[in-house]
Amino acid sequence: GLGAMSPWYLLLVVGLSLIVLNELADHLASALDTPDNPLRELMTPRTRSEWVLLVGVVLPAIAVTEELLFRGVLIGAFRVGTPVPGVGLIVGSALLFGGAHTAQGWLGVGIATLLGVALGAVFYLTGSLWLVIGAHFVVDLVEFLRHAGD
Fold first, then answer.
1. Which of 27, 32, 98, 129 could be stapled to 112 by a disulfide with Cβ–Cβ 3.0 to 4.6 Å?
2. Cβ–Cβ under 8 Å, residues 120 and 94
């Protein structure tokens, strides 16, 4: 099962899969000619010190807090404390995760919801909060790196 895989291998597979999903969604956004993500534009660093702050503080803080809440509490804690089936916990958490991304526009909400389903499923199957924190951080970092020159 998944428990026998190296955590680094899992992080690589999950992170790359989520990056591919995010890139496909970005291409869809371009095809639909949706407005660019104003929050990402606002947060994209322009100087070396801003990049250090983003990568060393902001992105880790976002990944940790969002994963603690949306996967750790809404899936992990409710898995133990309620009779709600796993799929209900994953989908419910993902819908709330997507809803928390309204500043990114309707497409950003949709993408975040899909990413939330993927992260939720990985957390549910592996029980590793660190894995989804790492994957979340990698996806966010690649997103900023990809759009840094826009």
1. 98
2. yes
Residue among 6, 22, 25, 20 at smallest CA distance from 131:
6
Asked if residue 108 lies in contact with residue 56, where contact means CB atoms within 8 angstroms, the answer is no
| Residue 92 clears pLDDT 90, i.e. is over it | yes
pTM above 0.70, yes or no: yes
SS (H, E, C) the chain: CHHHCCHHHHHHHHHHHHHHHHHHHHHHHHHCCCCCCHHHHHHCCCCHHHHHHHHHHHHHHHHHHHHHHHHHHHHHHHHHHCCCCHHHHHHHHHHHHHHCCHHHHHHHHHHHHHHHHHHHHHHHHHCCHHHHHHHHHHHHHHHHHHHCCC
